[in-house]
Amino acid sequence: MAKRSSLSIRIVEGKNLPAKDITGSSDPYCIVKVDNEPIIRTATVWKTLCPFWGEEYQVHLPPTFHAVAFYVMDEDALSRDDVIGKVCLTRDTLAAHPKGFSGWAHLTEVDPDEEVQGEIHLRLEVVPGARACRLRCSVLEARDLAPKDRNGASDPFVRVRYNGRTQETSIVKKSCYPRWNETFEFELEEGGTEALCVEAWDWDLVSRNDFLGKVVFNVHRLGAAQQEEGWFRLQPDQSKSRQEEGNLGSLQLEVRLRDETVLPSGCYQPLVQLLCHEVKLGIQGPRQLIPLIEEMTSTECRQEVATNLLKLFLGQGLAKEFLDLLFQLELGRTSEANTLFRSNSLASKSMESFLKVAGMRYLHGVLGPIIDRIFEEKKYVELDPSKIEVKDVGCSGLHRPQTEAELLEQSAQTLRAHLGALLSALCRSVRACPAVVRATFRQLFQRVRERFPSAQHQDVPFIAVTSFLCLRFFSPAIMAPKLFHLRERHADARTSRTLLLLAKAVQNVGNMDTPASRAKEAWMEPLQPTVHQGVAQLKDFITKLVDIEEKEELDLQRSLSLQATPVKEGPLFIHRTKGKGPLMSSSFKKLYFSLTTEALSFAKTPSSKKCALIKLANIRAAEKVEEKSFGSSHVMQVIYTDDAGRPQTSYLQCKCVNELNQWLSALRKVSINNTGLLGSYHPGVFRGDKWSCCHQKDKTDLGCDKTRSQVTLQEWNDPLDHDLEAQLIYRHLLGMEAALREKHRELSTSTEAGSVPTGPGEALEDPLAQMLQVLQDLQEAHSRSPASSEPLEPNCLLELQT
User: How would you describe this protein's topology in the membrane (predicted)?
Assistant: First the structure.
């Protein structure tokens, strides 16, 4: 069993930010740090004081993290980016909001004395003496200190203060992982101060020393224990009066902390088997649980529940059957064909999640080239006469301003070309569509045709498919390509308008060009011939898409399962050593890497033959490298063993913090079950005769920092975690247990009034009664679990003086 923490983060928007550029505006973006370590960087929104991001992330963390901070930055091309302000949410604050923190938060000034990080290793003891006892403080080492100097490191020393006396350690140059092993003694006097203060500082030759953090101990509490030793988190200096909030603008956030104790797989088997049995029975099962879950799930939770259920059934190989059950339930309560799958029902939300999990790679293959072309061309496109701006376009080749009519016609031609290219790519992609997606759409098509068989409803089965494929998958990806991982940055205003108009056109095609869709925006009429032709193309595509036989489906699934599907791929720079010596003797060479479930491989070009670099089973750790090691903050190291069992390290450079964390996350997830994973590592490099991080001269020395194998980002192509999904479903059902029991009482009463059980086993076949029993058993298993009562910080042996 394991205790897991995760943060659901949505960075919505900012408002009233201060102007940082001479133009009276700013180019804001956000950096998210967990315990001062950068995890996420949003895209930059150019030239605005009220940016909208709308970016969502899920971060898995160890339960011992302390705070998450959101820094709003202003991007500058020629100098260091400016810090506008920050919002910091502690773990305790998030834990006090079980449904999550949501709303506007004022940005506060970033005070260097509060920007501390890392831990310090101390041994404290009370030593009896002839006249009086003495307090002995041994300063052993520190790790992950904040880099305060331009070289990406610090020159740390420690100042120990007690009862008016101060003693200091030696200075360790250029290290965030110093080792001192120095001991100081103070005489304990009656009536003396209770507080022992240990402060870490960065030494500077020509300017003021920088504060790195402090730890304050209660000496009287130490007296009872006589001796304590451990790692202690450095705390900020909060003695200063804070600047008034509100004058730096605000940030709208949605942040939710979830702590889960995941039990062994066997504990969840009764729950999984009960749900799977219902899905296999379909709509024939008595007292169904899935409709009850949908009925009792609030609208705001429905997407999360749908995703968890979908992933659970995907892991059991029953995703198609689960979705088919939902299709039948919705069809059974729908009388008007034009309202089918238009609500935020469990069927609609589950199908959205299914397409993102099973069809994202397919979406990238079809849509990616069209989106790239639109971003590269940056053409001015507008069809609405009320919004057209001639001045934005300038002059044509005839050296005269283009007329409004010419701009409208040119825009229509551009959009017709993009829409035609997209429909052509879609029509050619039948065989590229994943087999499980094709089979699900075939099932949907058949169910809708059975429910609405008349001639007047002949388009309804097609619209049912396009309502998901076009309206809920392709169109949202066109409008916000960054949120679907199609682009690294948000579109500028001109490109965004082109994407919106293209998405509207795709929606019109998906709606089968109905009169209602045409009447909404009459100025879309110039695209009508392409839309009309697109409807015929789309119908032909869907007909071919759903024309898949069971044998063909199984063959496709079998062939796909035999392939080593890439988990992540893209260009990276690999470190090549040219000889022993200083930093100048090393370089990075650009190669194209591919991570599969078997190995990390590389090639000179994306299409050339790949060479295996590291076997997946040999990975021991994937961690960041100190900035000073290679002069870049985006370098990672993969520690592994070669075929002879010898330890090796590869250094790979990424182009940005997001790419760095995505690669680290992918490597950690695929190697999580490896034997021999490291608990510590060196964040520096062994250059010359010592480690650059802690200055130790033994190359085989144990690492000076702890590994962070639990810090990962959730992505659409993550491997399924069956136990976690079952735990999340259990947690949701537990929240509605009272309502389920009330429903069971109502059903039992009506059954007793209407009929008498025919046999002793009939009551046991009631799925709702079985569900309530399963929930009770899981509650008892959690209460017996030692992980549920573990302290969050086992290493903090002494209480801090506040």
Answer: Peripheral membrane protein
